[in-house]
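Section 5: illustrative case.
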């Protein structure tokens, strides 16, 4: 029931935008009664936060899958950064992101992302393919914040250029 509700939210946002979302509309789209919906969610904000948390979890799963596409740490990192930038480009230019990209679920997902990148960066530093003169934690934050700019770019080509620039800052100096 929860997944069907969250799928309905996604469909309604895609069709009509965030401002048109109502509990009645969600219940109708999901094919359930409003009373049933209220058993699971107290209000529209709780539904949107649950949907956003699910979307963030799915994004982290996509990044994990991207990391499995190469053997070398620097190549895995490149695949992950490209995927992260494309996710930012496709999903975070909306009013919804500004509204929902806060709260405990967002903090937790951000920490998971930073930890994931930190581990890839540390692995690459040990292999000598990524810089080791800056802590992996700081470099992970650099990646997250530099690639957040993908959310306001106007083309995928621009996103790819941003990823290349970010990667150049991760290579060993010299």
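Designed sequence:
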């Amino acid at each position: 029931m929860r997944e069907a509700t969250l799928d309905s939210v996604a469909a309604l946002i895609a069709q009509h935008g965030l401002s048109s979302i109502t509990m009645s509309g969600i219940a109708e789209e999901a094919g359930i009664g409003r009373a049933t919906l209220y058993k699971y969610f107290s209000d529209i904000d709780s539904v949107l936060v649950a949907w956003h948390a699910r979307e963030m979890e799915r994004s982290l799963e996509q990044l994990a899958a991207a990391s499995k596409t190469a053997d070398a740490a620097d190549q895995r990192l490149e695949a992950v950064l490209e995927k992260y930038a494309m996710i930012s480009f496709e999903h975070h230019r909306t009013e919804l992101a500004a509204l929902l990209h806060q709260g405990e679920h967002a903090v937790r997902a951000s920490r998971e992302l930073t930890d994931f990148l930190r581990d890839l960066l540390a692995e690459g530093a040990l292999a000598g393919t990524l810089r080791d003169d800056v802590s992996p934690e700081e470099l992970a934050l650099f990646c997250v914040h530099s690639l957040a700019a993908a959310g306001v770019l106007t083309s995928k080509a621009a996103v790819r250029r941003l990823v290349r620039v970010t990667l150049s800052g991760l290579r060993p100096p010299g």
